Amino acid sequence: MATANTPDFNKPLYAPLAEIDPEVKNIIDKEVWRQFTGLELIASENLTSRATMEANGSILTNKYSEGLPNARYYGGNEYIDELEILCRKRALQAFNLDPAKWGVNVQPYSGSTANFAALTALIQPNDRLMGLGLPDGGHLTHGYYTAKKKMTASSIYFQSFPYSITPETNLIDYEGLASQAKIFKPRLIICGASAYPRDWDYANLKKTATKEGAWLMADIAHTSGLVAAQELNSPFEYCDVVTTTTHKTLRGPRAGLIFFRKDLENAKDLEKRVNDAVFPACQGGPHNNTIAAVATSLLQASQPSFRAYAKQVISNARTLASTLIEHGYKLQTGGTDNHLILWDLRPIGLTGSKVEKVCDLMGITINKNAVSGDASAQVPGGIRLGTSALTSRDMREEDIKVVAGFLHRAVQISLVLQKEAGSKLLKDFVRVATTQEEGKEGYKQVKQLRDEVRAFATKWPLPGVDVATLTKPEGILED
Ligand SMILES: *Cc1c(COP(=O)(O)O)cnc(C)c1O
């Protein structure tokens, strides 16, 4: 609270957000409403806990702490040191790692910066690396480039050569990778993906890495929650470095982690290389409010309840897959081992963009995604769906079947709209989806399904929000 002596120039420090900045407050309220009234199926998203959000919104945001615990550039870090040490301990515990064999840096701001710091630690500028190609499910930061442009720092500062999935099975082409690595001689092989529904054979990758004298790094950004819950193969058995985001299946705040081996005979200095790469090479002061939130979410991820959550996420993804297959649709690899599925829409003559658009109009949030064999990267032929967030809203198999039914109808409506659009252009498709034209049915069907989705979605709770008292904020375009 301000005191009687607080000067006018400091009075704004004490007023609540709603009073200081109703504009931003209203935007937040609208986003809460969107999350409450919609169905979140973006595979990279999740709903973090109330406790995590409390830590993330804390006063720790005020503190500078460049450096590492007990070796900072600034004073006043006794509690920040305690926090960072606790966060590291919990990170190792959450992934069942022996502190004698593994260390972790908890300062990365996000997955992309964690990856760039890891590359900086492991290899030199212009060295060669191999990662799964973006159209095959890999991530931008694993060396992505196009014919015209080096798109990411991982291809600007390093030479990159992507490996791929096998066209027939759509599984990682481990043999192809091995024979390409023999010729290309990468210094680093990166595994892990953003759109790959199956598990990884880390032992196989390790064989190739050892043979060619390359580092092996796993980026488990998407699946780390499922790895922590021991529902998927562990990359820690075979990899030298493991990076992850903390906000996808791990269900924490937006941040990144870098795990590194401490027991390598030929790289005793790996710990120092990783730490120096994060700071000062790639980042400045750590975001201590985020580190507190990461620590809290890691505590939660270490509980038996989190393992039950992870099992449910996978079971829900499998149910979503099998229900869509029962409706006659094609999924890449025919199913899933993890939290996500890739739905190939080409057999029914739709693009990912159109279905994404229709779903958006109904409050079903998904993303268009490349599927194996797409003719053009500009027109992705599929969509990616994940069950992490819906599972965090308490949904189980029977509820996921209802969601699969909505998706089925959304796709059928898309076919109607495509016919009524009179052309294959997205803009004509959007026009008939959003305006009532004489004698056309698609628009009405969109509205009907949207109402059903909303009625279903608002039956579920939303972590961190008291939905019983939630009211529709100003500025929501809903009729
Ligand atoms: C999401 C993702 C990242 C990037 O994470 P950001 O937090 O968005 O920077 C990195 N790698 C993979 C495999 C991802 O899926």
UniProtKB/TrEMBL annotation:
It catalyses: (6R)-5,10-methylene-5,6,7,8-tetrahydrofolate + glycine + H2O = (6S)-5,6,7,8-tetrahydrofolate + L-serine. Its cofactor is pyridoxal 5'-phosphate. One of its GO terms (biological process) is glycine biosynthetic process from serine. Its EC number is 2.1.2.1. Pathway: One-carbon metabolism; tetrahydrofolate interconversion. The keyword Secreted does not apply. The modification N6-(pyridoxal phosphate)lysine is found at K248. GO terms for molecular function: glycine hydroxymethyltransferase activity; methyltransferase activity; pyridoxal phosphate binding. Keywords: One-carbon metabolism, Pyridoxal phosphate, Transferase. Residues 17-406 form the Serine hydroxymethyltransferase-like domain. It is an enzyme of class 2 (transferase). PROSITE patterns: SHMT. The keyword Transferase applies. GO terms for cellular component: mitochondrion. Belongs to the SHMT family. NCBIfam families: PRK00011.1 (NF000586). Interconversion of serine and glycine. This is Serine hydroxymethyltransferase. It comes from Hypsizygus marmoreus (White beech mushroom). The lineage of its organism: Eukaryota, Fungi, Dikarya, Basidiomycota, Agaricomycotina.
